[in-house]
Design a protein that fits this description.
InterPro entries: Leu-rich_rpt, Leu-rich_rpt_typical-subtyp, LRR_dom_sf, LRR_domain-containing, LRR_R13L4/SHOC2-like, Ubiquitin-like_dom, Ubiquitin-like_domsf. Keywords: Leucine-rich repeat, Repeat. It comes from Spinacia oleracea (Spinach). The chain is α/β, with parallel strands linked by helices. The chain is 14% helix and 17% strand. It is built from six helices and 16 strands. Helix 4 links the parallel strand 15 and strand 16. Helix 1 runs antiparallel to helix 2. The longest helix is centred in the last third of the chain and has 18 residues. The relative contact order is 0.07.
Length: 379
């Protein structure tokens, strides 16, 4: 799929090298260098005006954003600190202290990670940190419920959270309070214990600018019709659940670019899927599909389609003819053979596109002799 690596509001993970240690953190790409320095104050005990941040040999400017500073996911930044510019509790020392609600873990590669201790009430400084970065990162925090302090990050428009990551916890309920986070653009709820009756869809559908929603690896058996109210949604991930169908209101999601519903129990796709005219990538692999609606041929921007491990007997007759950007099709173990593909109108043009993409991939890897994958099973 040919989508830009960086989009507005994307979260990037940073590695800050300081005093022989590595501090890991996540921030939005439209955060400023000044925001980063403010966040580092709590971890290093160094005032922002005493911090000099260096990336690729250049000193970072406070007013610039991470994006304009060419800082990307995984970037390494060196922090140099001026002596004497310490906070009120004492002078800066080489091994900077961290907030009392964090514990310090040394990984196998000797890098340092600060892990929140959630057994005690969250400090005001932690909420302040969320508001500065606009990222609420609570993945892998052993949570059974969403902390009440999270809702405070939706109370003021200037510092509202844009990203909420609650993945890999034990959360059961998504309460009505979720509607407080009116500026949320990315909501990640993967690998929890969420079921149909534990989600307040009334609250969730109030998030009018939500662009990314992920419920992967939960216990959902259906998606409600109210899903259609999330008209700003660009990505919907609901893989590894127990879904049997999709609501017809999914056709209202005209901004949707990526749809991943693989590893469910879906037996049919509603014909209104053809109204999702922005779709670029669709993954419906490992379901119970017997056919696809003919309206798939309306998806003229479609580039990637995964249908493997289903029970298909045919493909839409206009798929290759109308989906003129389609270049990746995976239908292994789906009931469709290569001979069947060759008989569909538009096959020749589709075959040229996928072979061209395959060749570009080989060229990018400096040549190679990997066998071309036909995408389907032989007769």
């Amino acid at each position: 799929m040919e989508i830009a690596d960086e989009v507005p509001g994307e979260t990037v993970k940073l590695q800050i090298k300081f005093g022989g240690e590595t501090i890991r953190m996540s921030m939005l790409t439209d955060s400023t260098i000044a925001d980063l320095k403010e966040l580092l104050k709590s971890s290093t005990n160094v005032l922002p005006r005493g911090q000099k941040l260096i990336h690729k040999g250049k000193v970072l400017i406070d007013s610039n954003t991470l994006r304009t500073s060419e800082i990307k996911n995984g970037s390494k930044i060196m922090l140099m600190a001026a002596e004497g510019l310490h906070q009120g509790e004492g002078p800066r020392i080489k091994n900077a202290s961290v907030l009392s609600n964090y514990r310090k873990i040394t990984n196998a590669d000797r890098t340092i990670k600060f892990v929140p201790i959630l057994a005690t009430p969250m400090a005001d400084s932690r909420i302040k940190r969320w508001k500065i970065t606009r990222v609420i990162g609570l993945a892998e925090s052993n949570l059974k419920a969403i902390p009440e302090e999270v809702w405070e990050c939706g109370s003021s428009s200037g510092s509202c959270a844009k990203v909420l990551d609650l993945s890999n916890n034990f959360i059961r309920d998504i309460p009505i309070n979720i509607s407080c986070l009116t500026r949320i653009e990315k909501l990640i709820l993967n690998s929890n214990e969420i079921s149909d009756d534990s989600v307040s869809w009334e609250g969730l559908t109030q998030l009018k600018i939500l662009k990314y929603l992920s419920f992967d690896k939960n216990n959902l058996t259906y998606l409600p019709s109210s899903l259609g109210a999330l008209t700003s949604l660009e990505q919907l991930h609901v893989a590894d659940n127990k879904l049997e169908t999709l609501p017809i209101e999914i056709g209202l999601l005209t901004q949707l670019e990526i749809l991943k519903v693989n590893n469910n129990r879906i037996i049919a796709i509603p014909s209104c899927i053809g109204d999702c005219s922005s779709l670029v990538e669709v993954d419906i692999s490992s379901n119970l599909l017997g056919e696809l609606p003919e309206t798939f041929g309306n998806l003229q921007k479609l580039k990637v389609l995964h249908l493997n491990h289903n029970g298909l007997e045919s493909l839409p007759s206009t798929l290759f003819k109308n989906c003129v950007e389609l270049s990746t099709l995976n239908i292994h173990k789906a009931g469709i053979t290569t001979d069947m593909l060759h008989k569909i109108e538009g096959w020749e043009d589709f075959d040229k596109r996928r072979r061209l993409k395959y060749q570009k991939q080989l060229d990018f890897r400096a040549g190679g002799s990997a066998e071309f994958d036909e995408g389907a099973d032989q007769n």
